[in-house]
Specification:
The complex is a heterodimer of chains A (about 475) and B (about 210). Chain A is α/β, with parallel strands linked by helices and about 475 residues long. Chain A has helices spanning about 5-10, 40-50, 80-95, 110-115, 150-155, 180-195, 210, 215-225, 240-245, 255-265, 315-330, 355-365, 385-390, 395-400, 450-460, 465-470, and strands at about 15, 25-30, 30-35, 60, 100, 125-130, 140-145, 160-165, 165-175, 200-205, 230-235, 275-280, 290, 300, 345, 375-380, 405, 425-430, 445. A five-stranded parallel beta sheet of chain A has the order 5-4-3-6-7, with helices on one face. Chain A has a five-stranded parallel beta sheet with strand order 17-16-15-18-19. Helix content of chain B is about 35%, strand content about 15%. Chain B is built from eight helices and seven strands; from the N terminus they run E-H-H-E-H-E-H-E-H-E-E-E-H-H-H. Chain B is α/β, with parallel strands linked by helices and about 210 residues long. Chain B has two domains: about 5-180, Aconitase, domain 4, CATH 3.20.19.10; about 185-210, no CATH class. Chain B is globular, with a radius of gyration of 20 Å. Classes of the chains: A alpha/beta (about 475), B alpha/beta (about 210). Chains A and B meet through strand 2, helix 2, helix 3, helix 5 and strand 8 of A and helix 4, helix 7 and helix 8 of B.
Chain lengths: ~475, ~210
């Protein structure tokens, strides 16, 4: 009786010094995704040590963090950003690594393009020098973020030295209410277990509400596993997974496809498999979520209020809450729906896929952003998502509503390019982190779903997306 | 990697929970393609009153006098006391690089985020987990005593206070071995190169679609 995590782990153990639980194991890596921010030092060290990449065909590279989302025909004007992207291009060209360059239609956020290309497949180990690599676990694979030393380690050896985590199953049972999305599930889970609740665990998301999610929704959920403290999140393989992958450029075809599918269908936790921890949430109880603080666990529901530090007995927690409210410029007990916004960001590796853009467009169609909204951005996750959206006319819907329709990249999720908040500006964002300064120094981030961000853009403040459909 | 020897170092307190990697080293400094020089921008948004960008001369910046590491008593600190879930957020190794480049050799906290914890060992920065009740006491002692230092003995897995009180900590034996001997992990893994090749060959036969 094995969990999905057990199966994935056992499939990849190359060597162990000891069979004791908790001892280090050498784990084989099937897919290595590379981007421009966390790789240059790894490539440099590799070269200095006189080493070469172990397996070139395991690597797929793309620049996403630094790329401009406006007209790219003249390249990147910020010389420091440009150097980082040029360095990736040079390293890939020199070593013969497959890279989607900035002008390539397939370019986009690394966690969007991997699955989109079928470069992420069930049963794989997938790593990238980026914590949101957990996204790929949606495909029933073991995917997690690594640091630059480990990027070099994988380049040089195709392996990583690691310890097995504990396993946690988070079951969401029942049916989600109208307008409730994977993002709301993710934030509700983090609200429940906290940002360190998943530390030391690999999460498996299960239950009828998860099985009912599209691949896009599952990716959103697994993406946020790291915000719950877990390096890896995963969902068992089912028809939804297989249907999504069929015909993707890097996915197997013909006889190989049949063989692969037969194996992929074994990638689920066995009935009776034992988890170190189990959390169960009722899907019907999940409401639209909005964060009010500077950590994803500082979250409440759209009908809630900003909490009152005076009611918190733990001294460290009270202090942290007060600090967060000061930074966010919020008063205790303010109803969430009274919080007015300055900017709207729809994008990021959490919520920039076609389904996210459709959900947001559905809300804004025929309407216009409120007068107090200074800027509303839609940044598709990849060139192919952008093209698809344009074929469906979504770009026109957004532009008519007063949104800016941009080129793909990480953009204002972490503000490494020119897309950022000015100090004091308040943003409804579909991204994953509301840390201080994340979207620009002094910027104030509220994490929400794409539909909630779209609704907030129209109203100028947060509103309950469930009221729009009625 | 340098060998980790027993040392006694000045302690500085970072008294807040969930200190994230964006706070440790803000994103604008991640554009560097080098591994060094991040120390001057450690905790940049808390440490300076003016906004920092890469390439600025630290001597021309406006330090925030209220920020703990700017207090004269904590200059040249080598041990950072921290609260729960230190290093949460991104996988950027720039976070441990900046702490190390600043001069820290040890971070003591009741818990760490997984990726950050792992990244620290790779560069010879030692993250130590102690019970939060012990941390509460150490925070109190460091605030009360200027020049408060701790001794870190990795060999015996002990943190020793000036009054010779010793607290044991856990550390994985392999990681300890690597730190004490300053070993190159890639070199160690490549000792298993034959085994990796055999594994890969078997995988290529059983799941050929992974090698297309």
């Amino acid at each position: 009786m094995q969990t999905l995590y057990d199966k994935l782990w056992n499939q990849h153990v190359v060597h162990t010094e000891s069979t004791e639980p908790g001892s280090m194991a050498l784990i084989y890596i099937d897919r290595h995704l590379v981007h421009e921010v966390t790789s240059p030092q790894a490539f440099e060290s590799l070269k200095l040590a006189g080493r070469k990449p172990w397996r070139l065909d395991s690597i797929l590279a793309v620049a996403d963090h630094n790329v401009p989302t406006t007209d790219r025909s003249h390249g990147i004007h910020d010389p420091i950003s440009r150097l980082q992207v040029d360095t990736l291009d040079q390293n890939c060209d020199e070593l013969g690594i497959t890279e989607f360059k900035m002008q390539d239609l397939r370019q986009g956020i690394v966690h969007v393009i991997g699955p989109e290309q079928g470069a992420t497949l069930p049963g794989m180990t997938v790593v990238c020098g980026d914590s949101h690599t957990s996204t790929h676990g949606a495909f029933g694979c073991l995917a997690f973020g690594i640091g630059t030393s480990e990027v070099e380690h994988v380049l040089a050896t195709q392996c990583l030295l690691m310890k097995k985590s504990k396993a946690m199953r988070i079951s969401i049972e029942g049916e989600l209410g109208l307008g409730i999305t994977a993002k709301d599930i993710a934030l509700a889970i983090i609200g429940e277990i906290g940002t360190a609740g998943g530390t030391g665990y690999a999460l498996e998301f299960a239950g009828s509400a998860i099985r009912a999610l599209s691949m896009e929704g599952r990716m959103t959920l697994c993406n946020m596993a790291i915000e719950a403290g877990a390096r890896a999140g995963m969902v068992a393989v089912d028809d939804t997974t297989i249907d999504y992958l069929k015909g993707r450029p890097f996915a197997p075809q013909g006889e190989l496809w049949e063989k692969a599918v037969a194996y992929w269908r074994t990638l689920h936790s066995d009935a009776g498999a034992v988890f170190d921890r189990t959390v169960i949430l009722d899907a019907a109880q999940i409401k639209p979520q909005v964060t009010w603080g500077t950590s994803p666990e500082m979250v409440t529901t759209i009908d809630g209020k900003v909490p009152d530090p005076a009611l918190i007995s733990d001294e460290v927690k009270r202090h942290d809450m007060q600090q967060a409210l000061n930074y966010m410029g919020l008063q205790a007990n303010t109803p969430i729906q009274q919080i007015a916004l300055d900017k709207i960001f729809i994008g990021s590796c959490t919520n920039s896929r076609i389904e996210d853009l459709r959900a947001a467009a559905h809300i804004v169609k025929g309407k216009h952003i409120a007068a107090n909204i200074k800027q509303a951005l839609v940044v598709p996750g990849s060139g192919l998502v952008k093209k698809q959206a344009e074929q469906e006319g979504l770009d026109q819907v957004f532009v008519a509503a007063g949104f800016e329709w941009r080129e793909p990249g990480c953009s204002m999720c972490l503000a490494m390019n020119d897309d950022r908040l000015i100090a004091g500006e308040r943003c409804a964002s579909t991204s994953n982190r509301n840390f201080e300064g994340r979207q620009g120094p002094g910027g104030r981030t509220h994490l929400v779903s794409p539909a909630m961000a779209a609704a907030a853009a129209i109203a100028g403040h947060f509103i309950d997306v469930r009221d729009i459909g009625r | 990697m340098e060998k980790f020897h027993t040392f006694t170092g000045l302690v500085a307190p970072m008294d807040r929970a969930n200190v994230d990697t964006d706070a440790i080293i803000p994103k604008q400094f991640l554009k560097s393609i080098k591994r060094s020089g991040f120390g001057q921008n450690l905790f940049d948004e808390w440490r300076y009153l003016d906004h920092g960008e890469p390439g600025m001369d630290p001597a021309q910046r406006q330090p925030n006098p209220d920020f703990v590491l700017n207090q004269p008593r904590y200059q040249a600190a080598q041990i950072l006391l921290a609260r729960a879930n230190f290093g949460c957020g991104s996988s950027r190794e720039h976070a441990p690089w900046s702490l190390q480049d600043y001069g820290f050799r040890v971070i003591v906290a009741p818990s760490f985020a997984d990726i950050f914890f792992n990244n620290c060992f790779k560069i010879g920065l030692l993250p130590i987990i102690l019970d939060s009740a012990i941390l509460d006491r150490l925070f109190e002692e460091v605030k009360l005593n200027i020049g408060y230092s701790l001794t870190v003995d990795l060999e015996n897995q002990m943190v020793i206070t000036p009054s010779k009180e010793a607290f044991n900590f856990e550390v994985d034996s392999f990681r300890k071995h690597c730190l004490l001997n300053g070993l190159d992990e890639i070199g160690l893994t490549l000792q298993h190169a034959e085994k990796i090749k055999q594994f890969e060959q078997k995988r290529r036969t059983e799941q050929p679609w992974l090698f297309a």
